[in-house]
Write a structure and sequence with these properties.
Helices cover about 65% and strands about 0% of the residues. It is mostly helical. The longest helix has 23 residues.
């Protein structure tokens, strides 16, 4: 957020352009009386109609940028105040410097407010479920991060505690697509920070809801802990539990928007994994060895069954594994990478 987001009157915004009230009216096609009512009012954005604002945006330089920056600032300040009432301080520097879209970050702060207020679980589920996706996930990752340079909160401890308390209440709800997604997303973020399987998050019985929740817990813990044994246990669970395998295969393509999010957790029979391939290649380069082992032994084989071309990136996949595999600490991981490269070579 820049100084341009500070409240400014229409006259201040157009002064540097050498425009007077009559000029603005002429270029925008609005009545001069309309411009006059807005001219010296720093709150003019709250008074102008949508159609009139569109006319100004399309004819006067700087209006569009100011309108967006001011709107973002208003929402940011309101959320910061509400979160402060809940004992959470927004890290303004991290918010401004993040490469994630500001709208996603503000939505993440809104999610934190819902969680902290302990609002109706149905509303919390519906809101958090909308964070299924790469960019939304990055925003939530920043929300829960304890890193002072990138975390959206100075100290997310209270949010972590509130999230752990919330998860069992969501899990007691009857079957709901939103509650399943929300549980996965929430537990994934908590486990990513803690690097462990938090006891309160472990599902009591197998089933679609609990299986998907467990996937979120495991993925987060893998990223946070680099636990090879956990990756192996998850792989074994998928081999003996069909619902785990089905949800695993569904997750990546919908997360990357290769496939539509479906409440029955199904994918079309023909699917090109173009975005999924891009994301997996990124993760091969950036995540730890245990997570790489999960990709190589669990997800990528499923992906190749769905799309033998791997989004047209089979060659890139083999090259990425050749670069990463030999440097892994465990022979088991190195061998798994080599075996998958051979499989890909045989497919080509």
């Amino acid at each position: 957020m820049t100084a341009d987001s500070e409240p400014k009157s229409l006259s201040e915004l157009t002064r540097g352009l050498g425009m007077n009230m009559s000029d603005v009216a002429m270029f925008s096609g609005l009545d001069e009386s309309t411009i006059s009512r807005l001219w010296d009012n720093t709150g003019w954005l709250d008074r102008i109609s949508g159609r009139s604002l569109q006319s100004l945006i399309s004819s006067i330089p700087g209006i569009a940028e100011y309108s967006m920056a001011h709107s973002l600032r208003q929402r940011r300040d309101a959320l910061a105040g509400d979160l402060a009432d809940q004992g959470l301080t927004v890290n303004m520097a991290a918010l401004e410097e993040s490469t994630v879209a500001q709208q996603h970050l503000l939505n993440a702060l809104e999610a934190a407010l819902h969680i902290m207020r302990g609002q109706a679980t149905q509303r919390v589920s519906s809101y958090i479920a909308r964070f299924w996706g790469r960019e939304q996930d990055r925003a939530l990752e920043s929300l829960y991060s304890p890193d002072p340079e990138r975390g959206l909160l100075d100290d997310p401890t209270r949010l972590l505690e509130a999230s752990v308390d919330l998860a069992p209440r969501l899990n007691r709800k009857t079957y709901s697509f939103h509650s399943i997604l929300a549980l996965n997303i929430l537990t994934h973020q908590v486990s990513k920070v803690t690097g462990s399987l938090v006891a309160e998050l472990e599902p009591p019985v197998p089933g679609r809801q609990n299986a998907f929740m467990m996937r979120g817990v495991v993925m987060g813990a893998l990223i946070g802990s680099d636990d090879l044994e956990l990756a192996e246990r998850y792989h074994r669970e998928l081999q003996r539990t069909p619902v785990y395998a089905a949800l695993e295969e569904w997750s990546f393509p919908t997360y990357t928007r290769d496939g539509r999010i479906s409440s029955d957790f199904t994918l079309p029979s023909s699917l090109l994994l173009r975005n999924t391939a891009r994301e997996v290649l990124r993760e091969i380069e950036s995540y730890n060895d245990a997570y790489l082992y999960y990709l190589v032994t669990t997800y990528i084989p499923l992906a190749l069954q769905r799309d033998a071309t791997f989004g047209g990136r089979l060659g890139d996949l083999a090259a990425a594994l050749r670069r990463r595999g030999p440097g892994c600490r465990d022979k088991k991981i190195r061998d798994a990478c080599a075996a998958l490269v051979k499989q890909i070579t045989d497919m080509a």
